[in-house]
């Protein structure tokens, strides 16, 4: 495994490999790797000749009330995990390398951002789309891997690749869960023992909603109401949102049919957890 820190060297390395008909799998991250990242690397390792992992804490996707400086960083730890998962190259650029002194062009995402978590984080997905546009042009992957735990990000990336005609296959990877169903997240460590025991109710509420929809219930208000009652009645968490949309378009859909997402965010004392379920109705 090697580490590359400059754009010029990364592009040259990949172009040389592509001349040898090598397929490139790419896992973009902001580091501080966890089980979710491992699942992306495992799948990418299975499906490609060369596996590239990027570690870059992207300043453009942090809002004014989000502390960029306090974002956890531990390159040595990340490198050990990457090596164990068979990563060939870590692309580890600085912010100055990626953006220079100023940027004359940024990507503006116009769809799929004003719902779910995006509505409370204006500009966040512009930052995500801008850095991914750069990374896709630097790493030149055949396939790029993203976790469905952040299904809104996956939807935005699908739109980016489609609209800008990147010759890249986007591979969504299922959410990694604990044995009791709780989605694995770095935020789970902020749950108290009591909250940790309660937290699996989030996924149980999603499974309940899926079952009701597939059994013929199409009243969105009733579905959301029953989910909220289930979560708040059986945990100390407070529902931030529960929303239902078409996927990946993230548009309201009436009646409920086709591929849909039911997504939620729940606030506990020191942690805000997100989760979702994506499935097809009447197909």
UniProtKB/TrEMBL annotation:
The keyword Cytoplasm applies. This is Pantothenate synthetase. It holds the Pfam family Pantoate_ligase. ATP binds at residues 30-37, 147-150, 176, 184-187. It is found in: Cytoplasm. Homodimer. The reaction proceeds by a bi uni uni bi ping pong mechanism. Belongs to the pantothenate synthetase family. It comes from Robertmurraya mangrovi. Signal peptide: none annotated. (R)-pantoate binds at residues 61, 153. Pathway: Cofactor biosynthesis; (R)-pantothenate biosynthesis; (R)-pantothenate from (R)-pantoate and beta-alanine: step 1/1. Keywords: ATP-binding, Cytoplasm, Ligase, Nucleotide-binding, Pantothenate biosynthesis. InterPro entries: Cyt_trans-like, Pantoate_ligase, Pantoate_ligase_C, Rossmann-like_a/b/a_fold. Its EC number is 6.3.2.1. Beta-alanine binds at residue 61. The active site is at residue 37. Its main location: cytoplasm. It catalyses: (R)-pantoate + beta-alanine + ATP = (R)-pantothenate + AMP + diphosphate + H(+). Catalyzes the condensation of pantoate with beta-alanine in an ATP-dependent reaction via a pantoyl-adenylate intermediate. GO terms for molecular function: ligase activity. The keyword Cytoplasm applies.
